[in-house]
Each structure stands twice: as C-alpha cells, then as structure tokens.
Automatic annotation (TrEMBL):
It comes from the Eukaryota. The keyword tRNA processing does not apply. This is Aldo-keto reductase family 1 member D1 isoform X1. GO terms for molecular function: Delta4-3-oxosteroid 5beta-reductase activity. The gene is AKR1D1. The keyword NADP applies. InterPro entries: AKR, AKR1D1, Aldo/ket_reductase_CS, NAD(P)_OxRdtase_dom_sf, NADP_OxRdtase_dom. Gene3D superfamilies: NADP-dependent oxidoreductase domain. Pfam families: Aldo_ket_red. The record marks 87 as: Lowers pKa of active site Tyr. Belongs to the aldo/keto reductase family. Residues 21-303 form the NADP-dependent oxidoreductase domain.
C-alpha cells in the first residue's frame, strides 16, 4: 500500500473509497464551547483532512454541516472531495425508523447525502426521539429488532442515493456474520467502526474483516479522552506508554503519531478526535515516515486486550457485542 500521500484512500467493497484518516468529532457537550466543533472541522479541512466522522447523538452535527457547507461555499472544496460518516442511533433500528434517522442527519447537516452511514451499535433501544429512554427506575428501556431487517432498510437508503456506502459499528463477528449470511443480501457492510489501538489491536476481528473485504475504522485510536463517565480509567493511558514514546523519539514523531501510523500502515482507518489546532495538524502528519516491520511487531506485542470503551451500562442487553471474544 502506498501511504506516501496524505490523500490516500482505501477502496471499499462497493466501489467507493474511504480516506485513511478522518477527524473524530465526539466531544462531551457540557464541556465543549459552542462553535468549537465547527472551528475544528474547518481547520481540519484546511489542513488536508477529507474525512469527518460524526453522529446525530454527538449534538454537534449541525456544526459539522455548517463547516463543510462554508468550505464548499468558499470555493476551496467540492462536496465530492469530502467524506462524511454519520450514524444511525440505537432508537432508530426498526426498519421504518431507518430512513427518518438518516433524514434527521441530512437535515441537521443540510446536505443531500452522506458518504457513509453506519449502525452505531447493534443494541436496539425503545424507538423514539429520546436517545436514552429509561423507565421510572432509571433503567434503560431496550427493544428487540431483527438487525437483518434494519440492514435491508439501509440498503434501500443507498438505492435512493441518500448515502453512498453503508456499514456498521461495534459489531462482533457473530453480528457481522448475521448480516453477511442474510438471504438476498444486496450490499455487504463496507466497514465496521470499532475501538482499535495498540492496547486493543483487534487482531482476530481485523483478520475476519479483511477476509470479507470489510474495512476496520478505528475509533478512540489515541486511547480516548479518558473521561471517567464513559471510559475505564483504571486502565493505563495509551499515549504514556514507554515503548510508544521511545519509538516517537526514534522516528522524530509523537506517541500519537506513532499509534495513528501503526493502524494506517496495517490498513486500518483512523479517526482521531481533536478540537485543538496544533493537535489536529500533528495527527495528520503521519504520511512522511514509515514504521519498520520490526517496530510494527513490537507495537503489536503491546496488545493487552484493554478496552477503554466498555459500555458496561448496556452489558445486560441481549445484543451487547462485547461478551464474545471478538
Ligand atoms: N462508533 C462508536 O461507538 C464510537 C465510540 C467512540 C468514538 N467514536 C468516534 O471516534 C472518534 C475518536 O475517538 P475518541 O474521541 O474516543 O478518542 P481519541 O481520538 O482516541 O482521543 C481523543 C482525545 O485525545 C486528545 N488528543 C487528540 N490529539 C492528541 C495528540 N496528538 N496528543 C495528545 N492528545 C490528543 C483529544 O483532546 P483535544 O481535542 O484537546 O486535542 C481528546 O481528549 C470520536 O470523536 C468519534 O467520532 C465512535
């Protein structure tokens, strides 16, 4: 794979392609000033990012849309230069809710289509507008859906031209196999967005996905923001790892650049989140060096099976994906 160009794309199984690095946009809404996401997306597009990862439930998708539309209006970019990935939330997994879920994203972005739309998680919640429905005892209200029927509704959205490619997120092997073996499957998922970094390198899921032409998109590729509300902070901090820092010195790069390059070099797309201009730029500067085979092996050996994003509050959901080995 030629990774010398920062505009490198990985082909998808439906004939489209995905830029190997995207800007993640999840930022705790209560900690993030209004407009910060818009500024970050604009800065990233100026730096050269062409892929933005977002979601309606991040509560800043309107800022992402504004940034994209303004850059297009400035004449700097065309819509087709930009790759936006949006997500279908767990309250919209009933087939009849899929189109409204996508429409909500398109209206929020004020765009005509998204490049990739993915099922955010395989665990259905009570359908409706409340993204986190709970009963009077404060317990999440789950729902049951046939994920294959959800998938068929997504296929129809692709046929209608509202989304170029369709994929999944947080699916384990069994859940991927369910879709792949669906009778009459029209489109395979192009990608599976999952946590992936040197402490959680996902070798088995990566191999399975590669065998089926499904691209792995690595979320939390830098080891998350370590917010104790949703991150298991009893775990060691990835970017403080001594090997990653010594490799940083060796290659004259930062530990963040080493972990991003590591994934990109093994065919994994990365979507690091930063709303800080220096770090947005830093995370993009991973195309002017190459990690040696020996050092790639040493980074692989760091795999500790440490999942930072466990989503344990939903571990009693029948479709909770992380009970399986992979
Ligand atoms: N599908 C899913 O279920 C799912 C789950 C989680 C995340 N995601 C997606 O994946 C994206 C990335 O994951 P993430 O946000 O969890 O974590 P991440 O990208 O691994 O880490 C983000 C954190 O690292 C900091 N950071 C960024 N660049 C840095 C650098 N060069 N050096 C040191 N620190 C740096 C950021 O702070 P600053 O902003 O201050 O730089 C932020 O606190 C999300 O934004 C979202 O788009 C998807």
């Amino acid at each position: 794979m030629d990774l010398s160009s920062s505009f490198h794309h990985i082909p998808l199984n439906d004939g489209n392609s995905i830029p190997v690095i995207g800007l993640g946009t999840y930022s705790e809404p209560y900690l993030t000033p209004k407009g910060a996401c818009e500024k970050a997306v604009k800065f990233a597009l100026d730096v050269g990012y062409r892929h933005i990862d977002g979601a309606f439930v991040y509560k800043n998708e309107h800022e992402v849309g504004k940034a994209i539309r303004e850059k297009i209006a400035e004449g700097k970019l065309r819509r087709e230069d930009i790759f936006y990935c949006g997500k279908l939330w767990v309250t919209h997994l009933l087939p009849k809710m899929v189109y409204p879920g996508l429409e909500r994203t398109l209206k929020t972005l004020q765009l005509d289509y998204v490049d990739l739309f993915i099922i955010e998680m395989p665990i259905a919640f009570k359908p409706g507008d409340d993204p986190y429905p709970k009963d009077e005892n404060g317990k999440y209200i789950y729902h049951s859906v046939d994920l294959c029927a959800t998938w068929e509704a997504l296929e129809a959205c692709k046929d209608a031209g509202l989304v170029k490619s369709i994929g999944v997120s947080n699916f384990n092997r069994r859940q991927l196999e369910l879709i792949l073996s669906k009778p009459g499957l029209k489109y395979k998922p192009v990608s599976n967005q999952v946590e992936c970094h040197p402490y959680f390198a996902q070798p088995k899921l990566l191999k399975f996905c590669q065998q089926h032409d499904i691209v792995i998109v690595a979320y939390s590729p830098l080891g998350t923001s370590r917010n104790p509300l949703w991150v298991n902070v009893a775990t060691p901090a990835l970017l403080e790892d001594s090997l990653l820092n010594s490799l940083g010195k060796k290659y004259n790069k930062t530990a963040a650049q080493i972990v991003l390059r590591f994934n990109v070099q093994r065919g994994v797309v990365v979507i690091p989140k930063s709303f800080n201009p220096e770090r947005i730029q830093e995370n993009f500067q991973i195309f002017d060096f190459c990690i040696s085979e020996e050092d790639m092996k040493a980074i692989e050996a760091l795999n500790k099976n440490i999942r930072f994003v466990e989503l344990l509050m939903w571990s009693d959901h029948p479709e909770y994906p992380f009970h399986d080995e992979y």
